[in-house]
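hey can u check if this looks right to u? its 313 residues, i copy pasted from the old doc so theres a chance i mangled smth
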Amino acid sequence: KNTFGAVNSISSLKTPGVPTVPSGQPQQDTDANGKISTASLYMPPPAGKIFTLSTGFKDDNTMGMVTSVGELGYIPTGIESSNLDIANNVTVPTGIPWRTLRLQPSSQGTSVVPDWAFMDLFSAPVIVPVQARGMFAPHDTMEAGRINVNAQALPYGDPAQFTPALERKLPLTALLQGVPKNTGIALTSAESQSIAGNIYNHTLAQGVPNGKSYPSAATLPSLYDSPGEVVEIKGVADSGEDSEAIIRGISNLITARGSVFTIYTIGQAIQETRGGQLRITAEQRHQTMLERYDDFVSGTIRFRNVTFRDLTP
């Protein structure tokens, strides 16, 4: 909030955001009502401190470290520059004040790289207890503990071919459960299930602007090229600058390229009758989870058996 008395006479905060941005320039940070937002002016607590907000939410920074690549959405990108280049006597386009890296649906075409694309280039540190290192950091080339947003079990997830379709939305629902949806208010169970379904089915945001599908999703509607692409999905970050809290909550826990996959096998013992009929006399179902990783020593791709179990019908 303003602590210097009256609001600056040339301040554009809380004014309609869209008209202040020239056509073709990056979008302004606005709230759900289209007003220029102050959400990104919020300063996280200093290292070693905890702030308790008026909503009761505890903003914990006792570790003094970046915990999510989504926090880079606080980085400011727009400044109000001089509108006159004195040396060359030409007009200089003004910047976009108050703007930060945008982790919301992009208004530009899919040929323009959106701000959220950078999320695929960074990773926040994860403190792994020594006792759990084999689970969270099994190999130097791997990063465990992430949910793959490309979770559809194709082709069995296509309702046009299979009724009922096979759905695997529970991991995404668990990921969203309890995540703040804005500054200090957590998603409810119903909201977590709804958003998880939107991510799973690649349901795009509807608003200003609408969410968009990027190259790979043109052929496979459920496929994400980057974990940052979930910001284009309905309910994730389409309610203004404050809604980027969801991305800060999940960005360090999702991936678009998982290294662990599951194989299901069925073995049957078959007997042929005298009449030429085949009869199944025994059946065994098995589930095996494998990890694919890069072995730096040999320079080859290797596979590790994570777990296996027998299944019953």
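DSSP finds four helices and nine strands in the chain.
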